[in-house]
């Protein structure tokens, strides 16, 4: 207890307690999920991936973005960006651990996960993902250790590996979806879109974290540096918007096939997520950040960054769910749901012609718990690591 | 080589759902899910019709695992739980399934169902063929082409029970088999453009 008090004090401690409480609640819900099965979530046979997989994509992106900026600084010798390396790598480590946690939480038989080590099918994108995420985590930890020790040469060498791996980690995540012929995900632009949204959401999160650390007096965040990072963020947002526009045009122009998926995105069930992403996550932040005057104001930068992060989360939602909406082989009564209601209810509870999904409370609590655990880990790591790199301040 | 297949003569299908129930009984399929569904094409409700009176039509489409020659589900399975056996059937080793549901996203036919909860059976006990493995919570399952029956040389239960004789089972690699003869009558497969090359086909 004494040690904790030494680590955090006053108002920060209240935040820590609240975060810890949410984490505890989430652990409870996860235990319930292990006891009763994934049936306590909103997933079913018509929509077999939900909030957990959205969060997985989201956090891989947040992680990759941070490391792409940090390692680019060392690869291309951008002196000013090097100063944010340590906080960026901490963000990256925390986010990739959250992403990994979400995959494990999503498994129906986590007790059998050792099968991945004894009989891995190397053709499966999920197998690639496990390998790349493991490498990525190791690189991150090594990077952090060498950065703290100030071993500039080792960091420079490692960064040359870290940069391609950071891009790969999000490409592989994209291929989990983009290589599936069954769904509207099947598109060559999926990996570039994922990397672009990793860069914008990851950098946006990094900016928010840096300003928070600055406020906590753990890291001196130079305003000139903020301005140039915010400028870079505007470029990333524009690239992301360009890729999304390319994809939508290609989907819609023939007026057949994937135009149906586009219609669901633009006017159907996933439209709120789509339009929030387009307006709130791309257009508004871009219009804020494109003006140099706004990039100097921390409030504007935080607002734009928060919108970008939220926008990318919404993008995960429409990207994932749109493809589940209309089954390829359509007809009445459709698909058997396999849910608890379907087990005990009448025909109306068993069948659906279209994909249906809404996250349940335990599912949302588990999601919130992982996010809070990430925030806690970030606070503790920053508090322990940042004061050790005096040179950075 | 053997390439086991089912051909379905849609002209003979009367939409009675006997195949769905025969399959459920044979394979101990739990409540709330089916391995074999009979769809009424183009409508939301089973037995509904397409068109405006008096120009109405109603067609049925029985759908289960298509036992594809190029199975999308098998490629994406990270543990190799889904495999193509030497008889050309797509099978699942439930002990190896980690419940990641890559296969459910990959299957263009929604053939797979998942044990989201502890399986429940209205009878309160297991039914069907004693040789059929019992699936635990947290694994995917689907039509096995009645592996246990076809291993013994019997037809799949859906074929055996179909009152309209709409279903034909056999080896597509044997040109003289009944199923090959049905294929030559103008067989077509579902979602041919996906390139999965199903071994379940339909004849109108």
UniProtKB/TrEMBL annotation, chain B:
4Fe-4S is among the record's keywords: yes
InterPro entries hit by this protein: 4Fe4S_Fe-S-bd, 4Fe4S_Fe_S_CS, ET_IronSulfur_Cluster-Binding
Pfam families the UniProt entry points to: Fer4_11
Keywords noted in UniProt: 4Fe-4S, Iron, Iron-sulfur, Metal-binding
Signal peptide: none
GO molecular function (one): metal ion binding
Taxonomic superkingdom: Bacteria
Sequence ranges assigned to domain 4Fe-4S ferredoxin-type in this UniProt record: 4-33, 56-87, 88-117
Protein name in the entry: 4Fe-4S ferredoxin
Organism encoding this protein: Slackia isoflavoniconvertens
UniProt lineage: Bacteria, Bacillati, Actinomycetota, Coriobacteriia, Eggerthellales
């Amino acid at each position: 207890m004494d040690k904790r008090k030494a680590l955090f004090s006053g108002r920060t401690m209240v935040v820590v307690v609240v975060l810890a409480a949410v984490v505890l609640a989430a652990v409870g819900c996860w235990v319930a999920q292990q006891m009763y099965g994934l049936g306590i979530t909103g997933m079913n046979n018509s929509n077999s991936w939900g909030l957990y997989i959205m969060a997985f994509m989201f956090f891989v992106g947040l992680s990759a973005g941070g490391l792409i900026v940090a390692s680019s600084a060392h690869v291309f010798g951008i002196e000013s960006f090097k100063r944010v390396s340590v906080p960026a790598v901490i963000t990256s480590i925390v986010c990739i651990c959250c992403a990994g946690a979400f995959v494990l939480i999503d498994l129906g038989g986590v007790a059998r996960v050792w099968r991945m080590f004894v009989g891995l099918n190397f053709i499966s994108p999920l197998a690639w993902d496990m390998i790349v995420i493991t490498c990525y985590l190791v690189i991150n930890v090594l990077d952090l250790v060498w950065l703290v020790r100030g071993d500039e040469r080792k960091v420079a060498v490692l960064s040359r590996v870290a940069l391609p791996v950071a891009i790969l980690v999000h490409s592989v995540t994209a291929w989990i979806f983009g290589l599936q012929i069954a769904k509207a995900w099947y598109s060559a632009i999926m990996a570039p879109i994922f990397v672009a949204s990793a860069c914008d959401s990851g950098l946006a999160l990094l900016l928010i974290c840096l300003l928070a650390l600055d406020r906590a007096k753990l890291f001196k965040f130079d305003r000139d540096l903020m301005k140039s990072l915010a400028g870079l963020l505007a470029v990333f947002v524009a690239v992301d918007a360009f890729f999304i526009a390319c994809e939508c045009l290609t989907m819609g122009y023939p007026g057949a096939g994937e135009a149906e998926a586009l219609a669901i995105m633009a006017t159907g069930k996933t439209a709120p997520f789509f339009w929030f992403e387009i307006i709130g996550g791309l257009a508004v932040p871009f219009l804020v950040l494109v003006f140099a005057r706004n990039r100097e104001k921390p409030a504007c930068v935080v607002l734009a960054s928060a919108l970008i992060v939220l926008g990318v989360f919404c993008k995960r939602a429409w990207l994932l769910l749109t493809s589940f909406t209309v089954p390829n082989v359509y007809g009445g009564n459709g698909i058997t749901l396999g849910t608890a209601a379907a087990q005990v209810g009448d025909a109306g509870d068993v069948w659906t012609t279209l994909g249906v999904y809404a996250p349940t409370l335990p599912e949302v609590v588990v999601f919130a718990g992982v996010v809070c655990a990430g925030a806690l880990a970030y606070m503790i790591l920053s508090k322990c690591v940042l004061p050790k790199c005096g040179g950075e301040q | 080589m053997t390439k086991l297949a089912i051909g379905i003569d849609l002209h003979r299908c009367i939409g009675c759902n006997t195949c769905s129930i025969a399959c459920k009984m044979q394979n101990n399929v739990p409540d709330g899910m089916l391995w074999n569904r009979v769809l009424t094409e183009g409508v939301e409700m089973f037995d509904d019709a397409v068109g405006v009176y008096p120009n109405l039509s109603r067609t049925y489409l029985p759908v289960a695992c298509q036992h594809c020659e190029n199975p999308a589900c098998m490629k994406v399975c990270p543990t190799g739980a889904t495999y193509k056996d030497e008889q050309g059937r797509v099978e699942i080793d439930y002990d190896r399934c980690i419940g990641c549901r890559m296969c459910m996203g990959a299957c263009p036919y929604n053939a797979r169902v998942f044990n989201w909860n502890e399986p429940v059976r209205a009878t309160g006990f297991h039914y069907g063929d004693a040789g059929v493995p019992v699936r635990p919570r947290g694994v995917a399952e689907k039509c096995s082409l009645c592996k246990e029956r076809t291993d013994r040389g019997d037809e799949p239960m859906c074929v055996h029970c179909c009152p309209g004789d709409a279903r034909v089972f056999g080896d597509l690699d044997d040109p003289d088999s009944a199923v090959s003869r049905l294929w030559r009558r103008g067989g077509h497969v579902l979602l041919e453009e996906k390139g999965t090359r199903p071994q379940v086909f339909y004849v109108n």
